[in-house]
Design a protein that fits this description.
single chain; 421 residues; alpha/beta; Serine Threonine Protein Phosphatase 5, Tetratricopeptide repeat; seven-stranded mixed beta sheet; six-stranded mixed beta sheet; 13 strands; globular; Metallo-B-lactamas; linear primary-alkylsulfatase activity; Alkyl/aryl-sulf_dimr_sf
């Protein structure tokens, strides 16, 4: 959080994913800004290979209309870098021409019965991505323009894979193009990258993009193994690419930029992991670890490590609970009072609700919005409607301080939901 977080987020969005079709080598195009995610078009002898398909059917169609400036060949092959819907949502636009759809197998199996959480994931995902916000409220989705389904520009239209790769590495020649497909779990367990050796180009999916990655999604979900993500970045760097094409934000062009940026990106993530584990091993509680973990000075202000999507704090918390579980070692927390009982006792100790009202007003006036939120929750637990109103005000004050689009969306969407109830 910074004083002008919203301003920093807007500035990032104006440069990170311009609407463009960039020909990065003969017959290879990196498409940015046409959807929330990127796509890569590879021209074969008689057809096109499409790596990812944008987030909606309409946007995929618009992309291909623009591509006709360069080629009129049909899309016959689709390769998904991973299973997130913003990378697969446009695939249905190619159902008349596509003959094979390749995906990577999931190296991190989904927990049994996860489907029973569909409703809560729906609510929290909607808030994280700002789907119910208007354009003025949402601005963008952090690492790309708003998804088509959020702005009436098409819908998810999925085609199922015809082949799921289970090997760690697969060599293929498709319409005269030699590709190496390599499993590289990171943001998802089914992530992989595509290496074009002859051109020195690597398509990395979402294991790298130009800001702090979503190492832990606030919508919820299984732990994204940060150590394995670092291993996958090491694997990517071992290919000595001249050009790296990410699934969001702009390409890395030239061996020097690839080496520097990917190296710093990998080292920053690894540093947070190791510092977190060290703090945990010293017996620190999670909030104490959050307070002491920071990037080395030479990494702190790099533009491609800005917290416009994920944050270091969320990363630390995810690592902490993944390795040690929910218990922080303090016996007070083994059987804490439930939140309602705690609120009643705290209000009795404070003496009156009026004192809480006054403290909330002072917190809102002084800019200590987190304190206002916590005090509002005391009132909400004792079913005082003033708690809802003060929480709405604090959420809307807090949102402009956020550089992360995800947290900004969540504050605003939650405030809107509270106001409706």
């Amino acid at each position: 959080m910074i004083k002008k977080g919203e301003e920093a987020l807007e500035k990032f969005s104006t440069t990170a994913y311009p609407k463009a079709i960039n020909q990065v080598a003969k017959g290879i195009y990196h498409v940015t800004g046409y959807g929330h995610s990127n796509a890569i078009v590879i021209e074969g002898e008689r057809s096109l290979i499409l790596i990812d398909t944008l987030d909606s059917n309409e946007r995929a169609k618009k992309m291909m209309t623009a591509m006709r400036k360069y080629t009129d060949k049909p899309v016959k092959t689709i390769i998904f870098t991973h299973g997130h819907p913003d990378h697969r949502g446009g695939s249905g636009a190619f159902k008349e021409t596509v003959t094979e759809i390749i995906a990577f197998s999931n190296k991190q199996p989904v927990l049994k019965h996860t489907a029973l959480l569909a409703d809560v994931f729906e609510v929290r995902g909607k808030r994280q991505f700002g789907y119910a916000l208007n354009d003025e409220e949402a601005l963008l989705q952090g690492i790309g323009i708003r998804e088509g389904k959020a702005v009436n520009d098409g819908k998810y239209d999925f085609l199922a894979p015809t082949e799921v790769l289970t090997a760690d590495q697969t060599e293929r020649v498709i319409d005269g193009i030699h590709l190496t497909l390599v499993a590289a779990p990171g943001e998802t367990g089914d992530t992989g990258f595509i290496w074009l050796k002859e051109q020195g180009i690597l398509c990395c999916g979402d294991n790298y993009y130009g800001c702090w990655p979503n190492l832990s999604a606030i919508r919820g979900g299984q732990y994204r193994d940060v150590a394995e993500w670092v291993d996958s970045l090491d694997k990517i760097m071992s290919y000595d690419a001249e050009i790296v094409l990410p699934g969001h934000t702009k390409a890395l062009i030239g061996k020097a930029q690839v080496t520097e940026v990917l190296g710093n990106f990998r080292n920053a993530i690894n540093e947070v992991l190791l510092q977190t584990l060290q703090g945990m091993n010293e017996g620190k509680a999670v909030d104490e670890v959050v307070a002491c973990v920071q990037l080395p000075a030479h990494l702190q202000h790099l533009p491609y490590l800005g917290e416009y999507y994920g944050t270091i704090e969320w990363t630390v918390k995810a690592i902490y609970y993944a390795y040690l579980g929910w218990y922080d070692g303090n016996p007070t927390n083994l059987h804490r009072l439930n939140s309602k009982a705690y609120a009643h006792k705290m209000l009795a100790l404070i003496g009156s609700k009026e004192k809480v009202y006054q403290e909330i007003e002072q917190a809102l006036a002084s800019g200590t919005y987190q304190w206002a939120l916590e005090l509002s929750d005391l009132l909400i637990q004792v079913e005082d409607k003033k708690g809802d109103l003060s929480k709405i005000a604090a959420l809307r004050k807090q949102a402009p301080l956020e550089t992360s689009a995800n947290s900004r969306h969540y504050y605003l969407a939650y405030a809107n939901d509270l106001e409706k109830n």
